[in-house]
C-alpha cells in the first residue's frame, strides 16, 4: 500500500512538472496562449517581409510616363533682396531650398525646391541650354549603377520624375524640373537636380530663356526680406 501511494505521489509530481514545463513555453495574448512556435513562425514571416522590401524595384525598360494634362502656371511669392542682383538671372539657395528668379527693383520670385541629398549637392554657375515640355527621362549611367532596376527611359508625363517641364543646365546632367510627387518638394532628396511643383516649373519655364544664367550657391548670403518695408534701406528711411 505504501509503495502504491509513493508511486501515485511521484506520478502526480511528474505531471505537475510537465504542466509547468508546458506553460513555460507559452505566453498569453487576448486571452489565448501564444506558444514559442507561434513566436518563431511570426518572426520568420516578419523577416521574409523585410527581405522582400529590401529587393530593388524593377521597372519596365521603356516606361510610359502617363498623361500630359494642361497645367496652369502658378505665380509664387515675391521677396525682396537686400542687395542688387542680376535681373533675369536665377539664384539657387541650397541651404534654404529656394530658387529665385530675379526681377527689377531688388525683387524676385521665390520657388520652394528640392535639392540634392547628402553627397549630391553642388555649386557653380551654368546657363539654361534647353527648355522642354513634358520631357522624357533617361537615367544617367551613374544612377543605373546605384539603382539597377531603373528603366532605360521614361516618356514624358505625370509619372515621369521630371514632371511638366525641364530646364537643362549647361552640358551637365543637372536640371531644374517638375515632379511626379509634390510631397518631396522642399526636401533634400534629389541626385543634384532642383525639383519644383509642376505649376511652379511651368511658370518658371514661361519667363526663363535659353541663355539665362543660373547661379547655384550652398547658401545665399545677400539677405532676403518678405516685404519692401523689411529692407534695411526702407527701415532707415522710416526712422528719419
UniProtKB/TrEMBL annotation:
Domain L,D-TPase catalytic: 88-217
Signal peptide: 1-24
Keyword Hydrolase in annotation: yes
Pathway(s) of this molecule: Cell wall biogenesis; peptidoglycan biosynthesis
GO annotations of cellular component type: extracellular region
GO terms assigned for molecular function: glycosyltransferase activity; peptidoglycan L,D-transpeptidase activity
Catalytic residues in the record: 177, 193
Keyword field: Cell shape, Cell wall biogenesis/degradation, Glycosyltransferase, Hydrolase, Peptidoglycan synthesis, Signal, Transferase
Keyword Cell wall biogenesis/degradation on entry: yes
Single biological process term from Gene Ontology: regulation of cell shape
Family, per entry: Belongs to the YkuD family.
PANTHER family membership: L,D-TRANSPEPTIDASE, L,D-TRANSPEPTIDASE ERFK_SRFK-RELATED
Protein name: L,D-transpeptidase
Organism of origin: Rhodomicrobium udaipurense
Amino acid at each position: 500500500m505504501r509503495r502504491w501511494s509513493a508511486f501515485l505521489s511521484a506520478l502526480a509530481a511528474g505531471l505537475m512538472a510537465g504542466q509547468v514545463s508546458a506553460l513555460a513555453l507559452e505566453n498569453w495574448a487576448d486571452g489565448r496562449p501564444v506558444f514559442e512556435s507561434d513566436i518563431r513562425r511570426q518572426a520568420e514571416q516578419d523577416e521574409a517581409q523585410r527581405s522582400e522590401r529590401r529587393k530593388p524595384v524593377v521597372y519596365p525598360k521603356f516606361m510610359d510616363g502617363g498623361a500630359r494634362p494642361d497645367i496652369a502656371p502658378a505665380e509664387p511669392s515675391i521677396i525682396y533682396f537686400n542687395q542688387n542682383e542680376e535681373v533675369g538671372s536665377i539664384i539657387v539657395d541650397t541651404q534654404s531650398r529656394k530658387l529665385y528668379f530675379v526681377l527689377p527693383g531688388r525683387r524676385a520670385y521665390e520657388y520652394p525646391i528640392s535639392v540634392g541629398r547628402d553627397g549630391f549637392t553642388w555649386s557653380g554657375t551654368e546657363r539654361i541650354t534647353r527648355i522642354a515640355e513634358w520631357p522624357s527621362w533617361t537615367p544617367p549611367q551613374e544612377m543605373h549603377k546605384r539603382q539597377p532596376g531603373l528603366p532605360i527611359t521614361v516618356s514624358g508625363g505625370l509619372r515621369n520624375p521630371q514632371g511638366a517641364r525641364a530646364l537643362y543646365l549647361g552640358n551637365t546632367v543637372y536640371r531644374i524640373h517638375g515632379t511626379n510627387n509634390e510631397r518631396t518638394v522642399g526636401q533634400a532628396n534629389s541626385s543634384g537636380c532642383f525639383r519644383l511643383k509642376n505649376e511652379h516649373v511651368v511658370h518658371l519655364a514661361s519667363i526663363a530663356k535659353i541663355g539665362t544664367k543660373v547661379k547655384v550657391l550652398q547658401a545665399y548670403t545677400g539677405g532676403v526680406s518678405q516685404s519692401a518695408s523689411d529692407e534695411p534701406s526702407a527701415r532707415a528711411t522710416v526712422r528719419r
